[in-house]
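Recap from last week: sequence in, structure out.
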Amino acid sequence: MHINLINPNTCLGMTEKIAESAQMVALSDTVITASSPRHGPESIESAFDETIAAAALLDVIREGEEKGVDAHIIACFGDPALDAAREIASVPVIGIAGAAFQLASLVSYRFGIITTMTRTLPASEHLLARYGYQHLCSSLRATDIAVLDLENISQDSYQCLKNECLAAIKEDKAEAIVLGCAGMSDLAQQLSSELKVPVIDGVSAAVKLAESLHQLQLTTSKEGQYAAPLSKGFSGRYQHWDSQSKTDSPKKLHRVS
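Predicted structure tokens:
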């Protein structure tokens, strides 16, 4: 199968890291094309960042559709533009937060989320409510490590992350940990080994769910919520969304197999 793996921010170093994490767990015949948008914020740490990133992210979804990919993964823990992406896609679109919650619920009675900035905690609460996992999340903690600092994480920052995980386990009774940023994807195995509990990285979780949906021949329902948008004209910078126009190509990184 072919997965369109999208880092919604414009940091290519982060995109490379996410691609490596995805490929480590992918089946040998799964092809992963990792991309980031041509335009947008270098990191997503607020509702403003997420809104600015959304339109360019949808361009990358459409580009993947034109290339005939079998699934799209939105590799940002806010699951930005997920509903809109599902409306315009003919194949499954998976957000890494939803994927991580699903897997955590299978391996623990209650889990904790360790995220980046304190200001993003309400966004995680919103996601838990959206997906119906509030009752299974016993801990929601922030490290106040900026997203871009995760690209080459320092030992001090890693220890801060580990300490928050330990607090979630010991103080909040979490039995598994969900890492609340795609930039933490390469840390899951080491943390799990040191903490002795399951540590779920949403990028890896999304890859395995995408492969399962493909194998089961399941895709997004087009009845109701995720029906294709009504055809209409667009102006200005969004004119390429007119039905006869072609989208701008995203800033593609590389294809790995």
